[in-house]
Amino acid sequence: MRPGFARALAAAAVACGLAALALALSTRAAILPLPDRLPGADGGAPTRPRILDREGRVLAVTYENAWNLADVVPLHDVPDVVRDAFVFAEDRRFFEHRGVDGRARLAAAVANLRAGRAVRGASTITEQVVRLLHPRPRSVWARWVEGLEARAVERRFSKGEILEFYLNQVPYAGRRRGVAQAARTYFGRDLDTLDVHEALLLAVLPRGPSRLDPTRDA
What we know:
Shape: elongated
Largest sheet: 2 strands, antiparallel
Order of helices and strands: HEEHHHHHHH
Strand order of the largest sheet: 1-2
C-alpha cells in the first residue's frame, strides 16, 4: 500500500470516527426524558373546573388545557371499530413493531423518490405519541430523534398504554383532543354509536385537522 493512500485512508477513518462521535453526542443531547406516566393515564382532572348542573351534567367545558384530562376514555371502553380504524389507518403493524416500522419507512421512501416529493409518511402511532410529548419542527433530524424516543416509549409503556394515550390526546380542529371530544364535535354522539365509516373519518382527520375539518364551512 502506498504511503499517500495509507495516510488518506487513516484520515478518512479519523474523520468518520469524529463524525460518529459528534452524531452520538448530538443525539444524546436531543433526546428528552419521558414522563413516569402518560398524561391522562390516571383519569386526571381538568386543570380548570367544569361547571355541572344538579344532576352532574356538564354545562360548560374548556378546551384550553394542554392535555385532554376531562374526557379520557379507558382503552377497554373504546369501541373496537374506533380502535381498529386508527390502527388500520395510521399504523397497521402497531402490535408488531417496537416503535419504528422499518418496512413502512422504506416503502414511503421509495414512493416519495418516485413522486419527486413527499407523498407518503411512515410515522407509527408510537412516533406520533413522541411528537405529542415532545413537539419539534419537522426535519430529517427530528425524525431520527423521534425514532429513538419511540423505542424508549415502547420500553417504558405497554402497547395498551400507548394506544390509550394516543386515542385520548390525538388533536382535532377547535382545540379538541381525543376521540370522545371528536365524536361529539363532528357527529353530536358518543363513541359507542359510531359506525365504521364515522370511525374511519375520526382516524383520518388528524392528518390535517384544520384542512380536513368537515365543520369548517358549516
